[in-house]
Structures are given as structure tokens and as C-alpha cells.
Amino acid sequence: MRVRVAVVGAGFAGLGTALRLQAQGEDSFVVLERASSVGGTWRDNTYPGIACDVPAHLYCFSFLPNPAFSSRFAPGREIRDYLQRAAEPVREHLRLGTDVESAVWSESGWHLTTSRGPVVADVLVLAAGRLTAPRLPDVPGRFDGPAFHSSAWDHSVDLDGARVAVVGTGASAVQLLPEVAERARSVVVLQRSAPYVLPRGDVAYGARERARFAEHPEELAALRAQLFAEAERLYDARVGDPVARAEARSRALGHLAAEVEDTHLRARLTPDHEFGCKRVLFSDDYYRAVSLPHVTVTGPLTGFGPDAVLTEHRSHEVDAVILATGFHTTRQPYAGIVRGREGHTLEQHWKDGMQAYASSTVRGFPNMFILDGPNASLSHNSAVVMIETQIDYVLGALRHIPAGTALEVSASAEDGYAQEMAARSVGKAWTSGCSNWYLDPRTGRQSLLWPGRATEFRERFGTFDPEPYERRTS
């Protein structure tokens, strides 16, 4: 199969690219997805309590609003269903159940080996996301009972009346713990570092309100603009302003004090790092759940026994283990199978950490674009906003890549951008000394977050500028 554009991944980034390509009249493209359905993160994660922690009407495509969201923070199933509906117009371009085994550049384009045959493309768009490779604890021992990562929830395991261990206290754990605690006989929470938790303050949208959104799309557009502006203002509290950050920290600690009466437990749940250094979480019921008499919060996991989880001072007998331990965010799973112009893999190019000019293009890998990759995430606003900006960038670049043309960013542009990202990350909360998923564990480089507001990213990269690129014809 020969196509103009090959897109890898059918989550928000891949589907958004496909829909925009189609809207621009491009018909020669394919979306390669290893799973049997679309949805990415929202397809894979089905744990109890899963929901978006960004307002739903900001966490959807701007060109495809969804008036049917039931609440301000939509449950995961509603986002999954939204993406499945969104995929319908490009269904004929989807190749589900297709695993990309290698992608190699030659002068004739990108040659992809897949589980369902070869694909040759002029342009390669990597839209595989950053929450696809679960991080599993590297500790001694083996647990003989059911144990699974939160992103691969085993619904066959009956937790009713069971003794359950939840490893981790990040975003997934905060959402699933209250649900698990309702069913389990006992729960032990193995915490490496206490998170900051702010009240969620969810609001339901009634049938009348949803109908009004459907009948008056201008109201929905105005709501999205309002939510975007509110999120942008969060930048100061998370990143930019020490006073605003201190005020946000005070709100989080006030929430902890109001919800947890036990002083010893409250001390254990008090973060020991700067506000914003790790992902800030939202929940109205997490602290209530950990305060239940059958829930115990202890130290980090140090090992497994056949029927127990081990901490530094104790063994806890359990029937099931839930690993809410996050993902390998700074090591993209596709990096080892993508080979560029000189035969090097993307993983080799990134041996000192991920980097890409405009968070999208890499020297030595012509006609290749990465979505939701290096320095393209946010700690204060919606990932979909960034993804849409990157899609605009790709669509603009396509106009500079006629058939037989190779477009490649210069080394100086890529390196200069990486230096800018490093310099702008200095002094930010993320680099204040805590362990987080923004920093590459190999080098300590902050390689995940865009160190500014989403507005700035959109202004700089919402339109493609060919100046930092070299163009060759075959």
C-alpha cells in the first residue's frame, strides 16, 4: 500500500489528524492502530472511577464539540464513546489490529513493516501518545495471586470482600481507590510520595442543559473559551508565580486538613515536595477513602511475597495487587523501531533524552512528525489543545512536501529548541528536586512539558514556518 500520509495511533492525536486531513480534501492516508478499536488511553483504561481531570468541553476537539457530556469532568466511558463516534467519518482509513513493526526512511519515503503487510508513505505521523508503556515496579519477589496494572484492569478479579493492595498514589490511584475501598474487606495503599490533592468540584449537566448545548452551539463554544481561559490562568499557580503557587498549595493543604481528622494519617498524607513538582490531583473522595478504618496507608513497595506485599518494616497479606504505577513517559515505545536517514533509530538519537524542534520534528528523520511527544504536554491545560496546534503544524508542513520531496529540520534548530526548553525549565517546580514523570531518569532532562502557556505554543506553532527546514528532492 502506498499513501501520502501514514498515521500511527488512533487516539486523540491520530484521529484528530485523520479528521483534519479528510476535511482538507486529502484522501491518501491511513491510520495504523495495533488495538482492535480506537480510543487510545480511553480505550485501554477501564478501571473503576476513571474520569477526565480536565473539563470535558475542553477535552474534546474544538471542531467536534460534544453537547452530551454528562458532567464537567466526564467519566472515561463517555470520552471513549466520543472518540468512537468521532472515528466514523474516517473509518475506511483505519487499519485496526495492525501493529507497526518497523519504520525505515529511504529516498522513496517511509517504509513501514506491519503485521498486516507493508505500507509506504511520503509522510509519517507518530501519534502513539505517552501513556502506552506501563511502568512496573522493579522489586524482588513474586506475588502468586492476581496482579495487574491500572491500565490493564482485570475485570475477572472479584474484589468484593478481598484484601487488596494498591501500589501508587498518582492520578489513577486517586480515582480508583474510593471505588476499590467500597468493595474490599481491607486495602493497603503503598505510597512512595504523597500527592497534592485539590477538590474536584464536579458539576452534572442536566438533560435540559445538554439539550441547550445541542441547540445552541455558540453557547458551547463560549463555554469552551471560558474553560480555556480559566486553565491558562492556572499556569501561574502551577508554574509561573511563587505567590500564586503558594496560594494553591495552601488550598490543597486546607483540603487535606478538612477531610482528614487523624493527625498521624494527615502527616503521612502531607506532601514533602514543592507544589507543582509532581502532577497536581483532583478528588472529592480520596481523602475520605484513605480515612476509612479498613484502609491503611503505608510506605513504598519493597518486594513481593507469594501472598503479600512488602514494605520496609512489614509484610501485608493480600489477595490481589493493583499497580497504579504510571507509565514510561519519557521513553516512547516506537523509538526503537523508527530508523532515519542515516540508519540510526530514534531511540539512538534520543540517547540523552527526547527532543524535537517545535516539539514535532527531529533532525535525520525527514517528513516525520511527532504528536504529543517531546515537550508537548502541559501541567495546567488540556492536552487536546496542544494536539490540535500540532496538527495545524503538520497540515501546514504538508503544503511544503510535494511528491518526491524530503523536508528535514536543521540540527541547529532542533538543538536550539532543546536548549530553550532546558533553560526555561530551570527554576520551575518540576525541576525543584522531586522525582516526577516529566524528567528523563537517564539524564534528569525535563523532556515532557512545554514550559509556557498553551496560548504561546499556539501562537508560535499553529502555523508552519519552513525557515528552519532543509528541502531536498529525489
UniProtKB/TrEMBL annotation:
This is NAD(P)/FAD-dependent oxidoreductase. It comes from Terrabacter carboxydivorans.
